[in-house]
Amino acid sequence: MENKIPLSVVGLGHVGLPTALGLAELGWQVTGVDSDRDKVTRISGGQVPFYEPGLQELLSKHLESGRFRPTEDINEAIRSASVVFLCVGTPQREDGEPDLTQVEAIARTIAQHLNGYKLVVEKSTVPIITARWIKKTIQRYARATAPVAAGAGVSNANGEAEAPALDVASNPEFLQEGKALKGFLEPDRIICGVETEKAREILTAIYQPLKRPMVITDLTTAELIKHAANAFLTTKISFINTIADLCEAVGADVTQVARGIGLDPRIGPDFLQAGIGYGGYCLPKDLRAFIRLAEEHRVDFDLLKAVEKVNEQRIDYFIKKIRQVVWVLRGKTVGVLGLAFKPGTDDIREALSQKIIDRLLKEGASLQLHDPRAMANMQRVFPREAGRVSYCASPYEAARKADVLLLVTEWPEYRELDLARLRDAMEVPVLVDGRNLFDPHELRAIGFEYHSVGR
Ligand code: UGA
């Protein structure tokens, strides 16, 4: 079966495009489909529509190798594939529930094109039992539509046409933006929730070249693993942020505490970086959805409600800290370093920088913003405004005549800054570091008034 199974990936966003190109890199023939015509045109022209390290090169490579074929024709993408990966968005509705409209729409489209066996693989983060709903929806609408292609269907005991065999699997993605390709090509584990031996065999064959541990479960368990993983990560972050508050209160150093506990393999060193909290498109949304899901099933998950509350309070904490440092914000010039929700991406969805900018503008400050990648995206949310919001070509420009400089995203290039130059550019050299990027001793030795988190 190796490398012969035609694959389609539906949705070419932050998860879909790395998945499609990663699968092509493993040697599979992949059709990538997206309903956004402009996006498909750009991808077909060899342009990745967002910033993700290494993706541009892989796109060029597999457009050239012919193993990746972008299209906007969903019907054809489904008909041509035996395995369809669903990587469409599941945005959050106003009431906090995930919006599964796109997932349902694709399920209905698949129902119309069951021209042979299909394995539908759910990769988007979805609530538990979505995989079962996908299957039910496909089966329901397949029966309601015109007879499937000649020879493709089978007849039941009554001689009625039945839809061809269908399997649904849950194969949650754990990749992190900014490290998406590494996440796909060198995953710690591959989780596959399946119902049949055939689905298990196919997914095992697809991922076999990676030679990484596979955990095969039932559908619901796989879906729960994804939720539990993201919820645990947020728990670690809110835990260390609360420890940071305590460190500030008693005069301890949170980075040393994180190191001290993280060396215990039962705890582990990752996701113990104290700061202004977690943002981005996934963790906040997924945690909210998981809390709702637990509520729906009458499971008391107060622990996660506390995790969410701690995170929501981080912005108040940061603004309060800035106020304690500069006193009155009205009329002050504030330089902001870092706008992306984390380094390595131009993504600003649910970025904490947005909340910080909003609060500072309301307080009457003028902002000089810089980010290595995310300025174009942020300008759509906060357009340039003379004397109020400006976007700067360099960190030094963001620091020019500023009363205070904020470090919001810990881009590694900020660590390489000429700190004396930064200091000299400012009206007064005050730096509030929301991510503990800098060494306090070094900053103070250079003449900065330096404030960070939990140390
Ligand atoms: C997250 C998970 O880490 C991935 O495993 C998962 O696949 C993905 O969500 C998803 O569900 O699609 P991602 O949103 O790309 O990945 O970003 P993370 O690297 O997890 O960072 C999220 C936020 O947490 C960032 O704002 C980051 O600054 C913050 N963070 C992270 C901390 O404040 N402290 C830390 O120690 C680590």
Descriptors for this entry?
Rossmann fold; 16 strands; alpha/beta; 2 domains; 455 residues; globular; 6-stranded parallel beta sheet; single chain; 18 helices; binds uridine-5'-diphosphate-glucuronic acid
The average pLDDT value, as a whole number, equals: 93
Strand content: 5-15%
Helix content percent band: 40-55%
Largest sheet: 6 strands, parallel
Report on this model:
It contains 18 helices and 16 strands. The radius of gyration is 25 Å and the shape is globular. The protein folds into two domains: about 5-215, Rossmann fold, CATH 3.40.50.720; about 315-450, 3-Layer(aba) Sandwich (Rossmann fold). It has helices at about 15-25, 35-45, 55-65, 75-80, 100-110, 130-145, 180-185, 195-205, 220-250, 255-260, 285-295, 300-325, 350-360, 375-380, 395-400, 410-415, 420-425, 440-445, and strands at about 5-10, 30-35, 70, 85, 120, 155, 160, 165-170, 190-195, 215, 335, 365-370, 390, 405, 430-435, 450. It is an alpha/beta fold. Helix 11 packs antiparallel against helix 12. The chain binds uridine-5'-diphosphate-glucuronic acid.
